[in-house]
């Protein structure tokens, strides 16, 4: 095989990495490069250095070390049986690439993953080597996210956390049946076991740092995971349930949802149609409801229809409100915070502003209008000093009044 | 407010600040004016960047001296924090907005909590735009390297919308402490030499370097990390509006990426075309349909497809790999040398032909021509997976209790994964539809072995068939 140039390999290995949704660079400890030999800083908030036409933020250099893989997961473009071009970087090449991008302010750091070559432990060693060179030889203080390979030696997984800000293991599919069918080489208990030991290591390190200032940090930005949506038969209700269990059991920072999208040289076992991108969006919205709006998982599941799917035309919060109209209208001047958070169209910021403002004076509809994006959406669900919805919440056609009818829906391009 | 005012307060004042982001200067002046009880509409604020104030104001008039006993102005921490952002905005009314709000704070100390108040909201809006501009500068500054006598010098050209350059300097110092860098803007410049920060006069784009070799890599990365199957141009434009594009090396690619996206996705969907339409509802119809199947390269090689054979209600289905030379010629499965070997073993194991449906994982013959002969080639995993659709159709119609897979290709077709035959043979595997799968070697493998090895393998093969036969009678006995 002729040696491919760095440019060609970057093309192959970035292309192979794009199905990982996460590009977050937030939530780690604050650091800067003052007094150091190298470069880099992290200041809490992540920075998106560019946006691709798919609307996704580009914050990190997200590549695979190699896309050779001994596994044969059907949804994956890099599976053994796929007819894709293969390439590999040496750890040093990835380090050089990361640093030259970082110095030019293109990126916040590195998100490194890899196909499995030789063995899981060998692959994990290579990933750790990249992080180690960056941290130890170049005193790199930017962000590092390492994909962890659940089948690798637990000792290695523990090492990854010492260099990385974030570690992640993908659960891949929301159901065990789906995993067995589509990722025959992976095992759900093994993945969960590895996530469990990462959780323990993270908790332990946090605890140790409370007592000893110089205790080593372990993945200060926590761990995350990703689920593929629409490649198996799991409903939205299943996925929401699974996500909330994952949040609880492994204290994940984030669960990413990735709508299964067509890949070149797809396996014949995959479903005929890809799910609408909107489904992914609705799942993220429901994720937000659980994490920031105080909805219990079963409440989000109530927003789904009888088939277990969240409506695509309206957001899950509105869907929930339409189902439980008895809980509305909510009096903006009196209702507790939890109740206000349930009003469709009121976000966390708007609720905070309303609560601060109502200590000053009685709020009128116009005041609410100044603090929200769409008063029309909020109006049927609230009471203000000068407004009370007249039986509006009882109207059978309320949904059609709220759903923007003129909004053109995107046609399936290849229906 | 007092009903009667000093005459002096009816006069107008013009206050000249030292710089557009001169928060200290504004605060000192504002404090003095509040203590002197000068209402907002009597003051015109100016800074070097926004000239052209009120012509009738007396700029040279001395500012009033507040009475010695006038109390210090009251101000909340919220206000101060917000004001430090607001003052960086390019809107020329920001100074008077701040003063008006400060003025109102004297009689309404909790004013800042009233988020629906017009002035508070205006402040919040300006501060939000400034914070966004600060974030975007941190994100979108692109350094280019210049090789100088003192080593590498990283230089960037950026056009901020507001007066944020000085406020943002700390970020770049903290991040790129060990580098030598300059950020050039139309509003001023920053230079860091590794130890100290210096400010310089406004620059032009021509002062900045015009390229950097690493940008080719970065552009390649940008184009490769983008997924053409999920185009969301609106989401991109919201966070990266066009006004920033001209200073970002990767942005030049955007139009062609968008234009090419649909074509690329269509190509992927077509290449992975899954939709055969409705599956034929009888074995005969499947036999017809596979003749025209061109879903993979084997289907397109001009050979004749070979359909399975046997009773439509057979309890046992035997799946081989693919038709061979003789099978393709005759259009029937298992009629070549391997087929003959299989049949003799079946007979010995007591498995009757009449109760068995035989078929292949792949319906067409894959080969390479060698002179007059056609040499068998293994189908790829992809080809097996594609052809599985037909086998699944046969399984759905025949509904065998037990399936015997011969060789790794057949096993992959039924399990969806590649397994080692030697490891999984001799034991039942449960399939999704409830039927039972047994796996053994392909008889053509036995034909390729010699002497002792062959005898050993044939014995194992015979043993597997015996166990299948036994299991089959158990299963039929159970009903």
Topology:
The complex is a heterodimer of chains A (415) and B (479).
Chain A: H1 6-15, E1 50-51, E2 57-58, E3 60-64, H2 91-103, E4 109-113, H3 120-137, E5 143-147, H4 154-163, E6 166-168, H5 176-182, H6 188-211, E7 223-229, H7 236-250, E8 254-259, H8 277-292, H9 297-302, H10 316-323, E9 330-331, H11 337-341, H12 348-358, H13 365-371, H14 375-378, E10 382-383, H15 398-402
Parallel strand pairs in A: 3-4, 4-5, 5-6, 6-7, 7-8, 9-10
Antiparallel strand pairs in A: 1-2
Chain B: E1 13-16, H1 23-35, E2 43-46, H2 77-86, H3 94-107, H4 118-140, E3 144-148, E4 151-157, H5 165-175, E5 181-185, E6 188-192, E7 197-200, H6 214-225, H7 233-239, H8 254-271, H9 283-291, E8 316-320, H10 325-330, H11 337-349, E9 356-360, E10 367-370, E11 373-376, H12 381-398, E12 402-406, H13 407-415, H14 421-424, E13 429-430, E14 436-440, H15 443-448, H16 451-477
Parallel strand pairs in B: 1-2, 4-5, 8-9, 8-12, 12-14
Antiparallel strand pairs in B: 3-4, 5-6, 6-7, 10-11, 13-14
Helix pairs in contact in B: 2-4, 3-4, 11-16, 12-13
């Amino acid at each position: 095989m002729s040696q491919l140039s760095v440019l060609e390999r970057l093309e192959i290995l970035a292309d192979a990495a794009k199905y990982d949704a996460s590009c977050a660079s937030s939530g780690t400890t604050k650091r800067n490069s003052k007094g150091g030999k190298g470069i880099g800083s992290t200041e809490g908030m992540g920075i998106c250095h560019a946006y691709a036409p798919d609307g996704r933020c580009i914050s990190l250099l997200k590549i695979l070390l190699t896309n050779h893989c001994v596994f044969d997961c059907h949804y994956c473009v890099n599976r053994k049986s796929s007819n894709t071009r293969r390439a590999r970087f040496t750890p040093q090449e990835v380090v050089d690439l990361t640093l030259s991008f970082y110095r030019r302010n293109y990126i916040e750091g590195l998100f490194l993953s890899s196909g499995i070559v030789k063995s899981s432990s060998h692959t994990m060693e290579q990933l750790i080597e990249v992080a180690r060179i960056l941290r130890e030889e170049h005193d790199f203080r930017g962000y590092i996210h390492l994909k962890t390979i659940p089948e690798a030696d637990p000792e290695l997984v523990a090492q990854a956390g010492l260099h990385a800000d974030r570690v992640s293991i993908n659960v891949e599919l929301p159901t065990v049946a789906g995993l067995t069918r589509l990722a025959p080489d992976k095992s759900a208990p093994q993945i969960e076991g590895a996530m469990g030991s990462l959780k323990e290591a993270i908790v332990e390190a946090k605890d140790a740092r409370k007592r000893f200032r110089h205790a080593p940090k372990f993945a200060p930005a926590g761990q995350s995971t990703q689920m593929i949506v629409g490649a198996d038969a799991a409903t939205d209700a299943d996925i929401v349930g699974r996500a909330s269990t994952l949040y609880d059991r492994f204290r994940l920072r984030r669960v990413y949802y990735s709508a299964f999208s067509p890949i070149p040289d797809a396996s014949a076992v995959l479903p005929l149609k890809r799910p609408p991108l909107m489904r992914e969006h609705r799942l993220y919205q429901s994720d937000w409801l659980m994490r920031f709006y105080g909805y219990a998982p079963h409440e989000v599941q109530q927003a789904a229809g009888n088939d277990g799917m969240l409506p695509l035309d309206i957001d899950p919060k509105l869907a929930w409100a339409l189902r439980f109209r008895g809980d509305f209208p909510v009096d903006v001047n009196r209702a507790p915070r939890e109740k206000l958070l349930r009003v469709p169209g009121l976000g966390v910021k708007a609720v905070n502003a309303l609560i601060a403002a109502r200590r000053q004076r009685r709020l009128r509809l116009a005041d609410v209008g100044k603090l929200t994006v769409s008063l029309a959406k909020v109006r049927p669900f609230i009471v203000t000093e000068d407004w009370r919805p007249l039986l509006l919440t009882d109207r059978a056609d309320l949904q059609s009044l709220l759903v923007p009818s003129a909004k053109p829906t995107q046609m399936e391009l290849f229906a | 407010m007092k009903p009667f005012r000093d005459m002096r307060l009816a006069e107008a004042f013009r206050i000249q600040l030292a710089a557009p982001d001169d928060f200290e200067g504004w605060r000192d002046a504002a404090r003095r004016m509040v203590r002197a009880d000068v209402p907002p509409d009597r003051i015109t604020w100016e800074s070097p960047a926004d000239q052209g104030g009120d012509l009738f104001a007396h700029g040279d008039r001395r500012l009033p001296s507040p009475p010695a006993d006038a109390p210090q102005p009251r101000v909340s921490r919220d206000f101060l924090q917000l004001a430090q952002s607001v003052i960086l905005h390019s809107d020329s009314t920001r100074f008077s907005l701040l003063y008006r709000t400060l003025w109102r704070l004297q009689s309404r100390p909790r004013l800042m909590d009233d988020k629906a108040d017009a002035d508070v909201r205006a402040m919040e809006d300006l501060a939000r735009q400034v914070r966004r501009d600060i974030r975007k500068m941190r994100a979108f500054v692109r350094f280019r390297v210049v090789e100088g006598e003192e080593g590498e010098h990283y230089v960037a050209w950026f056009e901020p919308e507001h007066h944020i350059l000085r406020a943002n300097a700390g970020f770049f110092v903290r991040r790129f402490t060990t580098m030598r860098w300059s950020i050039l803007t139309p509003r001023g410049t920053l230079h860091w030499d590794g130890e100290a920060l210096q400010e310089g006069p406004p620059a032009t784009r021509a002062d900045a370097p015009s390229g950097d070799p690493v940008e080719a890599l970065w552009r390649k990365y940008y184009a490769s990390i983008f997924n053409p199957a999920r185009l969301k141009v609106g989401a991109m434009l919201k966070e990266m509006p066009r006004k920033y594009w001209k200073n970002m090396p990767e942005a030049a690619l955007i139009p062609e990426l968008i234009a090419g996206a649909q074509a690329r996705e269509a190509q992927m969907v077509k290449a992975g075309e899954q939709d055969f339409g409705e599956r034929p509802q009888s074995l005969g119809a499947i036999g017809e349909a596979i003749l025209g199947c061109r879903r993979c390269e084997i289907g397109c090689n001009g050979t004749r497809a070979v359909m399975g054979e046997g009773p439509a209600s057979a309890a046992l289905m035997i799946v081989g790999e693919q038709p061979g030379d003789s099978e393709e010629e005759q259009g029937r499965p298992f009629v070549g040398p391997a087929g003959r070997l299989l049949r003799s073993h079946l007979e010995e194991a007591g498995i009757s032909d009449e109760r068995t449906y035989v078929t292949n994982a792949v319906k067409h013959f894959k080969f390479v021509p060698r002179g007059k002969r056609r040499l068998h080639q293994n189908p790829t995993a992809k080809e097996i997976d594609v052809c599985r659709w037909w086998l699944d159709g046969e399984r759905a119609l025949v509904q065998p209790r037990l399936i015997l897979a011969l060789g790794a290709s057949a096993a992959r077709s039924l399990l969806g994964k590649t397994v080692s035959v030697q490891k999984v043979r001799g034991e039942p595997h449960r399939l999704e539809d409830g039927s039972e799968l047994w796996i053994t070697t392909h008889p053509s493998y036995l034909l390729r072995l010699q002497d002792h090895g062959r005898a050993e393998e044939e014995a194992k093969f015979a043993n597997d068939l015996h166990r299948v036969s036994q299991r089959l009678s158990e299963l039929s006995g159970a009903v």
